[in-house]
Amino acid sequence: THTITHTQKMEDCEVLEFVGSEGETVKVYLLGTAHVSESCASNAKKVVEEAKPNGIFLELCTERRGILTMNSNPVPSSQQSVSELFSEAIGFVRAGQMPEAVSSLLKMMYAKVSADLGEGILPGKEFKMAVQAAQRPTTVVLGDRPVSITLKRLSFSLTLFDKIRLALSLFYSMLFVKVDAELIKSMLETDGLDALIEEFKEVLPSVEEVILRERDIVLTYNLKKLCQVVIDKQQQPSDGRIVVVGVVGKAHVKGMKNWWKKEISKELIQELHEPKPKRKRTNWNKMDVVMGVSAVVVGGTLSYFIARKTGLLPILISAFK
Q1: Residues β-bridged to residue 57
Q2: β-sheet bridge partners, residue 55
Q3: Which of 177, 250, 274, 279 falls between 20 and 30 A from 12, CA-CA?
Q4: What whole-number distance in Å separates Cα of residue 89 and Cα of residue 82?
Q5: Predicted model pTM
Q6: pLDDT tens readout for residues 98-156
């Protein structure tokens, strides 16, 4: 059993402490970022250079490890390419392939962000710069749940009405929400982001649960595992410090802090890696159908309300890459 304590906040990082079974102490610098920000990428580089960590933890999975070797933006930014992605998403929906449809919609989202900011952003560039900044042999862990599992769980969790609301929110965000430096700045401010997440949770609780809360648990569990791995490898510098830097989306930081002080069982982690959640989604009933049809009829008004209230685009940008 490990003793986990939470310590002070320092600069742009949350500073946590992991104490191993033999009393070894690991200092963890947890950096929250926006996945489309050049300043966040530079900050990740700076934190790693200053901390000189024994281990680096990234909010990536093996399915997304290609981000670490990308030299150009794989997400199209032209209007034509966005239209092609939209058509691709519709095709997946018609075929009943919801995980693939959501993946196409996320690509559309990053294409829009790149176009709005007027630069060829490398989504997740902060991960690459953090690894490149390591100044000595460092254990690097990709600690997120596989994106394919997340998308499958999301698809299974959504009712018909949820899917309509999610689609309308995404479409409204694509059309009317402009991503600029001011929006990215607000995403990195804790109070503003917390308010967006709470509103998001009220309207689309299933999406918030799968995209954010479940992954908070998985990320925290794997970050603790890295701390123990670093201890076991005895990768300890001459000054006696053992340090780990974690780079994750800003929307995950609060949840990870909350779970840092709790024991997380292997059984829970195994459950969260099942393609289908144990809890059954609500069966489609007459009310779902009525609400779904109503949503289609008043789609323009509803999409405006939902996207404005949930802040879907900034939430996804700061939580999912």
Answers
A1: 141, 246
A2: 139, 244
A3: 177
A4: 11
A5: 0.78
A6: 667 767 766 776 666 666 665 556 677 899 999 999 977 799 999 999 988 998 898 88
